[in-house]
């Protein structure tokens, strides 16, 4: 009986502490999460929430270092290292967009679902899917990236490639493999191309300085139980930079360009796809081609740039903290933003970030400040805490779309999971941390981006 009384007293004290800490605030304006969840520990793998249906193929996404990952890993990269690489990618995207005049650009106006996995075991926070390539199909674990168009896998023979968990794809062992000629239409659409022995050669360059090159080819792609005939991809035979440190078989491009998986399959599955990026290493998400566009209450217009067609743009208009809209001038958001699964952290205009940081700190006064970490300058000391309460954060997009972020999309480690651009004129980026647990719809045909909370 005495032990029960002590337990009740402890619970009462905890409740009173919460009330005192948020005196005058609506508790619904805060989210509560255990400190252990900030460390992303996981011992088992949960399956994606998507229910199977006829004509739909589900392929899961996983954390690289978690139990769901099909790619074994030994040394997990530090958060600081991942953020340094992320900063290079964000800077590269901004440079690519520097020639776009004024804003994010002009609006342009049977399913396949593939599970997705957060790729922390591949030295980044990118997400992974597992597909089959060739005939017979060879299992390949690939990063997904909405900021890239050209898909590629490492192929035999490879003069400079990284070691990978899956078997190296051997074109000579696939009865359906074909290399494109230098004069083919597929070769002509590549931005960076060459010719060797009458075969089309491609080159890809990434924001962190990595490059890859090889023969541009086609073969059968297996997505779960569905197949894509004559799928165009790069057979990578040489790489440089951080690509040599990865353990994946390659990359699957989901951008808006002609070479991407989404564009190549639009005629079969429709001009819409969606994904849900899982929040923890022990959970799975999914990638769906031909996604249903109904059922998304929260939608915002999709902005497209004819100069940089790979990216899917949106217009962020406001930010709410603890249910209160911050006083940020509309002009601060005029450069627009893009949705990017390959960038980790959301980049905000400097004016908007300063307002967000100040408001968030005001709602976190019960926790001592901690030293900045890399690009994170709003950090807290959670020592001795079993759980923490954090102010809610919502992103408000054009068309009245309000996206109330999950707690996983607000705090990373012990810091506010946002970063500031150098000014208000640089392109904003909605990174994958803020997209976690949402089904994010890319309705290319309808010109909209949708959000559905709690999908994975």
UniProtKB/TrEMBL annotation:
GO terms for biological process: proteolysis. The keyword Signal applies. PROSITE patterns: ASP_PROTEASE (PS00141), PEPTIDASE_A1 (PS51767). Keywords: Aspartyl protease, Disulfide bond, Hydrolase, Protease, Signal. GO terms for molecular function: aspartic-type endopeptidase activity. Pfam families: TAXi_C, TAXi_N. It comes from the Eukaryota. InterPro entries: Aspartic_peptidase_A1 (IPR001461), Aspartic_peptidase_AS (IPR001969), PEPTIDASE_A1 (IPR033121), Peptidase_aspartic_dom_sf (IPR021109), TAXi_C (IPR032799), TAXi_N (IPR032861). The active site is at residues 145, 340. Belongs to the peptidase A1 family. This is Uncharacterized protein. The gene is LOC123410179.
């Amino acid at each position: 009986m005495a032990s029960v009384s002590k337990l009740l007293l402890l619970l009462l004290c905890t409740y009173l502490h919460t009330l005192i800490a948020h005196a005058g605030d609506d508790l619904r304006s805060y989210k509560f999460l255990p400190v252990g969840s900030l460390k992303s520990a996981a011992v088992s793998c949960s399956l994606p929430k998507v229910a199977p249906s006829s004509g739909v193929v589900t392929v899961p996404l996983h954390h690289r270092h978690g139990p769901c990952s099909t790619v074994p890993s030994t040394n997990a990269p530090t958060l600081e290292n991942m953020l340094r690489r992320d900063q290079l990618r964000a800077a590269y995207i901004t440079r690519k967009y520097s020639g776009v005049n004024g804003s994010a650009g002009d609006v342009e106006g049977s399913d396949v679902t593939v599970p997705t996995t957060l790729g922390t075991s591949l030295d980044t926070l990118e997400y992974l899917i597992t597909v089959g390539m060739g005939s017979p199909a060879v299992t390949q674990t690939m990063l997904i990236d909405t900021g890239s168009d050209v898909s590629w896998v490492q192929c035999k023979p490879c003069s400079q490639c990284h070691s990978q968990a899956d078997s190296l794809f051997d074109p000579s062992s696939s009865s359906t493999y074909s290399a494109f000629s230098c004069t083919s239409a597929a070769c002509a659409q590549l931005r960076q191309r060459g010719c060797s022995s009458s075969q089309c050669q491609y080159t890809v360059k990434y924001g962190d300085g990595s490059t890859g090159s090889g023969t541009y080819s086609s073969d059968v792609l297996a997505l779960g139980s569905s197949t894509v005939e004559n799928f165009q991809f790069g057979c990578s035979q040489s790489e440089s930079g951080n690509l040599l440190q990865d353990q994946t078989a390659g990359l699957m491009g989901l951008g808006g360009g002609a070479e991407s998986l989404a564009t190549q399959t639009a005629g079969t599955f429709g001009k819409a796809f969606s994904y849900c990026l899982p929040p923890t290493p022990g959970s799975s998400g999914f990638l769906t081609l031909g996604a249903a566009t109904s059922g998304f209450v929260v939608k915002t217009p999709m902005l497209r740039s004819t100069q940089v067609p790979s990216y899917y743009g949106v217009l962020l208009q406001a930010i709410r903290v603890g249910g209160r809209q911050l006083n940020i001038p509309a002009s601060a958001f005029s450069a627009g933003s893009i949705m990017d699964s390959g960038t980790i952290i959301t980049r905000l205009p400097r004016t908007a970030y300063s307002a967000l940081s100040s408001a968030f700190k005001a709602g976190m006064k019960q926790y001592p400040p901690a030293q900045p970490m890399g690009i994170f300058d709003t950090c807290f000391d959670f020592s001795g805490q079993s759980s923490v309460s954090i102010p809610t954060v919502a992103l408000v997009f054009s068309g009245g779309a309000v996206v109330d972020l999950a707690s996983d999309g607000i705090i990373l480690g012990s810091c506010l999971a946002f970063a500031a651009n150098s000014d208000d004129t640089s392109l904003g980026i909605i990174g994958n941390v803020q997209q976690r647990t949402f089904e994010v719809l890319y309705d290319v045909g309808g010109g909209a981006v949708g959000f559905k909370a709690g999908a994975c």
